[in-house]
Amino acid sequence: MEPAKPLPPIAGRGAPANPRPTRTGSLDREADGDWLDAAEDVDGAPPPLRTTVTVEQPKTIIARNTSPDIGFDRSINPYRGCEHGCIYCYARPTHAFHDLSPGLDFESRLFAKPDAAKLLRAELAKRGYTPAPLAIGTNTDGYQPIEREWGITRSVIEVLAETRHPLLITTKSDRLLRDIDLLAAMARDNLVGVAISVTTLDPHLARTLEPRAPHPKRRLAAIRQLIDAGVPTQVNISPVIPAITDHEIEAIMATAAQAGAIRASYILMRLPYEVAPLFRAWLAAHYPDRADKVMHMVQDIRGGRDNDAEFFTRMKGQGVWAQLIRTRVKRAAREHGIDRSFPPLRSDLFRPPERDGQMELF
Questions:
Q1: What strand order describes the sheet that includes 79-80?
Q2: pTM of model > 0.90
Q3: Are 222 and 259 in contact, with CB atoms under 8 Å apart?
Q4: Edge-to-edge strand order for the sheet containing 263-268?
Q5: 266: helix, coil or strand?
Q6: Which secondary structure element, helix H or strand E, spans residue 267, and what is its range?
Q7: Which one of 301, 313, 316, 352 is most buried, counting C-beta atoms within 10 A?
Q8: Would you call 238 helix, strand, or coil by DSSP?
Q9: CA atoms of 285 and 209, how far apart (whole Å)
Q10: Is the peptide bond between 239 and the residue preceding it cis, with omega within 30 degrees of 0?
């Protein structure tokens, strides 16, 4: 039997396919001879894939976690799914719980939470609420393209700025510069820290890895503008992909240091659940010459598997390749002077709102 041919890339999208989720009981449709199975042969190719947005109305907006290997215990995701389309995104499997595909559905069938700011205000007003840094952008990017029209992330930051609540932002978009007025004001009281993700400096590779994310140069320029505005900003080399992007670690560090970043961090690529087969398909389409080598290195880092979900090792990996990458990151950060710590964010300035929207005076 001949090996399956790699799926051709889809212009402007990260995933090469749209496999149905299997963990929720939904299976891929199999051809049974019906004429609809051959519709494309009869009527031509389907129309271009368009992004759709569905309004979601959750009852709460702050997500809590007890993970011991991340530096925050609460976060907000203004959107589900992400139009950036990063093929490696570890959040893709969350779409399976909507009976949607972690493939193309994840990057084209999005959900927005327009009541996020209202819900946040209500949660911050609850008696007994204890402030601590709240993260945005840890699951899907709060500054993905649809934020331009919806403005949900900005509305959330407005509430946090008003209540003087500490905030952490992770993004791979320079769209957050639209909110630099809020961020600069919060930074003056040590209430905000920003991480800009830069995976590669190669624009061609960036277009295939993260097709609808801004150009790497725009992200680096955003670091400079944030730093000039007094907003503490780090570069996040995330993810590091063995034999695809790992050779750029030192170059990214040097460029980010020139842009003014105060520190650097990194995360090794994670391939949970449906992400692994999607990434394998991406490798077959774009890097067939080294696909086996890449996955061999990934599995060496992940204890012989495509993914390691264990606390502590899931972020840093194990084995010789993981140790080598860790050493290179530390050495480059030290060499370029971006191994400093973020100024500690303040929680003592928090002023809870009253439920009617007014600030509580005492």
A1: 52-55, 109-112, 79-80
A2: no
A3: no
A4: 63-64, 74-76, 134-136, 167-171, 192-197, 233-240, 263-268
A5: strand
A6: strand 263-268
A7: 301
A8: strand
A9: 12
A10: yes
